[in-house]
Amino acid sequence: MKGGAVLEQIGKITVACFDKTGTLTVGKPQVTDIISFGRNEADVLRFAAALEAGSSHPLAKAILRKAGERQLSLPPTSDANAIGGVGVRAVVEGIEVFVGSPKAAGERAPMTSEQSSQVSALNHEGKTVSIVVAGHEVAGAIAMRDELRPDARAGLKALTEVGIKAVLLTGDNRRTANAIGEQLGIEVQSELLPEDKQRIVGQFQKEGWLVAKIGDGINDAPALAAADVGIAMGGGADVALETADAAILHGRVLDVAAMVDLSKRTMINIR
Ligand code: ADP
Ligand code: MG
């Protein structure tokens, strides 16, 4: 905890907003399924990996690892842009290629109802699905699964037991997020962009809540900064450590409740 003011503040929080990837999950997703729609499986993975080569997002690392295992050679990309909380786009082999959230992919190339229902089925299993669009065609889909941290459920319960509301704020798809929220027993808000996460923190504050935001800071440094107490966790972005008021170093969700308890006991001792 960075200083006395933070130590005092943490014991007073009334709502804890958690990030999903790398915070409540281990943050090492594995590719479980590659689905070929307009392109063959190897192309789907090759295109996605080429785009992800410059990204530090956990999903990017999963895709690159899989392409490495299959020893695919990656085509060069030009004009690449990461779109925070959405995905990555670039030009590959002369065509505009995108990999990212189903919602954003749908704005580039709509999926058929059969394709959508295949993706939904994977979401219901708690898997995150990124869609690959090549030109105006849905090339395929890549599903990834990230394990929950072993103490995630217990760590959230420890907060609710002392009267702190716990909420999951995620950019992931609604069905995936709800499947995970159900396993954890907490309220979920999904399909959020980085600015939406920040706005929700602000809304809570307007309603009189004292807000903690816990996350790795990849794409959501603004929400971390906006919270009354920003807690960095998951070792993601260095910016998180700089922006945050406190940091959890060993990925223990239970440490949030431990910080609250330490704060309360310290304040009692001082008084
Ligand atoms: P979270 O809230 O879990 O931290 P993000 O806001 O980082 O999630 O991303 C939201 C969604 O956008 C992901 O579930 C994924 O579908 C898509 N996405 C974001 N970045 C990438 C990327 N680099 N590669 C593939 N998909 C991505
Ligand atoms: Mg994130």
Automatic annotation (TrEMBL):
One of its GO terms (cellular component) is membrane. Keywords: Membrane, Translocase, Transmembrane, Transmembrane helix. The lineage of its organism: Eukaryota, Fungi, Fungi incertae sedis, Zoopagomycota, Zoopagomycotina. GO terms for molecular function: ATP binding; ATP hydrolysis activity; cadmium ion transmembrane transporter activity. It comes from Syncephalis pseudoplumigaleata. This is Heavy metal-transporting ATPase protein. Belongs to the cation transport ATPase (P-type) (TC 3.A.3) family. Type IB subfamily. It is found in: Membrane.
